[in-house]
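SEQUENCE WITH STRUCTURE:
===
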Amino acid sequence: MATISGHSLILLLILFFFFFNSLAFSKKCHPNDKKALLQIKKDLNNPYDLISWDPTTDCCTWSTVDCDDKTNRITRFDNSAANYGLPIPAAIGDLKYLQSLAFHKVNVTGQIPESITKLTNLKSLDLQWNSLTGPVPSFLSKLKKLTYIGLSFNSFSGTIPASLSQLPNLGGLRLDRNKLTGSIPESFADFRQQDFYLYLSHNQLTGNIPAKLGHANFTWIDVSRNRLEGDISFLFGKNKSLNTADFSRNMFQFDFSEVKFPESLRNLDLNHNRITGRLPEGLAKMGDLISLNVSYNRLCGKIPVGGSLQRFQTTSYFHNKCLCGAPLPKCK
């Protein structure tokens, strides 16, 4: 009998242990974060993809969010593959410990809410593939810890705010495939992070690329399919760390003959511009060049022999003024 009572007591202690552990776990989520998340869910009309957001459970276990192991505050909000057709809820700004925020391809509409400026710990902002409109807000420059901004595939309009260059930790900026107008800000020369990548393609940008940007050191730059013009030779140079550059389908006009390239360059697209001169001899020394397209320009002379130049298709060179030599027909 005593043995049975002893076993019962042990079983009871185990049950109490799991009960109190479960009780403590259910309170792991910070009440301010839970309140903000439930308001976000309400503002999004209680969508099915947030069905796990049950107010009786711990919000650290809910889908699309992660909590910090030590503070138990929400640090990641990653929402993708939905179809809301609604604005980004202002309550997102109440998740003050967020480091990563993504509404990716979920058809959020309207403008970016200014409440986002309360997210002073935010490092990554991904709002790509949506139906966002209005200007790219200058108040994003208040988020000093940002390392990445992704706003591509939306309908943002107006000019690019020069204040984005005030973000000291920014390493990547994607504003491609919008309806942006005006020029590229001269202040973008102030970006100082290594391996910086800048995507501004498929907009309606005009004017010259500021010469001051020659002092910056971009690893990836894509300004294709705009209405940009003038000289871009200053963006190249042996001391750069440029890997991929796409300047295609603009109105750039400069002499290509003496341009120098960094050893790091792997992909270069200059098609559909007004570039003159000849192909620089330095291209023949770049055996690691993966892709090159200089078609539809005003280049002349023999294609240098060496490196990868003869391995590229004729489409990389055709429709120039008088470019010749393999893989094009022989020079006369």
Summary: The two ends are 110 Å apart (CA to CA). Confidence is low (pLDDT under 50) at residues 14-26. Residues 2-26 form the longest helix (25 residues). Helices lie at 2-26, 31-43.
